[in-house]
Amino acid sequence: MKLRRPSSLPAERQRKILESIHSRGSAKIQLLSRLLNVSEATVRRDLEALTARGLINRTHGGAVLPETSTAFEKLYAEKRTQLQEEKRRIGAAAAARVSDGETIILDSGSTTIEVARHLTHHKNLTIITYDLFIAGSVDYDDTTSVLVSGGTLRPGFNVLVGSEAENFFRKIRVNKAFLGADAIHPEQGVFNATFSEHAVKQRIVEATQEVILVADHSKFGKVALVNVCPLDAVHRIVTDTGLDETALSELKRHGATVELA
Hints:
By secondary structure, this protein is an alpha/beta fold. The protein has helices at about 10-25, 30-35, 40-50, 75-80, 85-95, 110-115, 130-135, 165-170, 200-205, 245-255; strands at about 25-30, 55-60, 60-65, 105, 125-130, 145-150, 150-155, 160, 175-180, 185, 190, 210-215, 225-230, 235-240, 260.
């Protein structure tokens, strides 16, 4: 049977391939060819591209997730116990960039919660988030307003996701957004380890005048399952002094502004 001309772009095909491999742990070229309605040669090229990015491992006739999987997301409670002092320093440095009266978005995560905790003395802020822990566990100043997106609760992470959350962030514009990440690569950009939150994060990047990426040193030089944005979409990176000189130099070589806390 003659295949119809594929209508999807390579990036869209590769996203669908990742989704398929992630859901099954592996996938065969013949199956992907039928799923995407493209030739097996096209699938092979897409698999090679994903392999080059470290997102999959090629096998005879298909591909699998890497042994060190890019889908390595840890539960929220586990994240909060790791590199706590570094995250506190990052949170303090990032919060210092907020002026009274601004409207900001706080992404979900164990580092952005530290940003929130250092905003308690700021006045007249409007804080917007889809993270219920950030919204409900911090004693903000009485003059600060906290807005929470709609959405579907993601179990184990205290966040709201889905189309309702995405549409909420499509409609707003803010001064600053503090973005978290599971992995950051100087050439390939900012990554999330699952598909659950990445679309919300992308809408957050689009909604703000200034994106400030907050992440500890362990996140750098890596990739994860799904790309959130290129590095040039980030205006400033706030990380800790544990970032090694090679990684710092690579970030700067790619035009990143980096602040060490």
